[in-house]
Amino acid sequence: MTLLQPFSALLLWISLLMVTSSVNPDKPEEKIYSCPVIQCSAPAVHGLPGRDGRDGPKGEKGEPGEGLRGLHGFPGKMGPPGIKGDLGPQGEKGEKGECEGVVSNDLQRQVTALEMKVQTLENELNRYKRVLILKNTRSIGKKIFVSTEREETFANGKSLCGKAGGALASPVNEAENTALKDLITPSKQAYIGISDEQTEGRFEYLTGGTVTYTNWKAGEPNNLKNEDCAVIQDSGKWNDLSCSNSRALIICEL
Fold it and tell me: Coiled coil located at which positions (predicted)?
């Protein structure tokens, strides 16, 4: 017990010495409780965030940038109509236009002139119709048979009818054959627009196509002396004969 007392006094003296030496005489505001060797208090924790600082003054406007200018956007919606403006000054007086009555009269004159021309054409057409009636013509269906009352070769007959806008008459049925027969002068014969020059024995229309109606006389066609053309006699019967060494009436169909 006697030995422990001096040792305890020594520990107390050393502790006081350490506390005294840790005190800084130049900084009196610091507490003497600081522990330079051993941490005396619990670790610190983060506090709550502080308040935002006040906005500073607005800076000066910078220089314009050098970037490319953007494209125009789409046009916006049309705004409401504005207030009607004041009436402008009266313009100069224009030239006097044509009266409606003058225009109507001019149109009426043109219509009258056209009507007169149509009437003249109708009179001419009727006159030619009467001339055709007086000449040897027959109308059957959509065809008109017109006799030239002239005897020509087969080649001249084709040319003559062609210039008139037609062809040598070619009956395709009994009615047309009869109408053609009635145009033939007694004891005469007329060329028919058929031939077998291309293929012997096969008669074809000069306008194209194989002959579908025939009225050959008994024993015809016989191709005597190379007879490639055909005629219709005053009896209505057909006969073949030479195209180059014969002459017959020319009857055209239009």
Answer: 104-138
- Per the CB < 8 A criterion, the answer to whether 138 and 183 are in contact is yes
Quick: pLDDT tens for 46-75. 666 666 666 677 778 777 666 667 676 777
Which has the closest alpha carbon to 236: 157, 156, 169? 169
Higher pLDDT, 254 or 5: 254
Q: Which of 242, 247, 244 is nearest to 230 (CA)?
A: 242
CA distance 183 to 139: 11
Contact yes or no for 170/206 (Cβ under 8 A): yes
The domain total for the chain is 1
Classify residue 132 by burial, with Cβ atoms within 10 Å: 0-12, 13-18, 19+: middle
Three-state DSSP class for 174? helix
Element (H, E) at 195: strand 189-195
- 159 CA to centre of own chain: 45
CATH classification of the domain holding 247? 3.10.100.10
Query: Which CA distances in Å does 126 have to 112, 121, 122, 129, 132?
Result: 21, 9, 6, 5, 10
Closest by CA position to 145, among listed 203, 195, 190, 188: 190
Domain that holds residue 163: 141-253
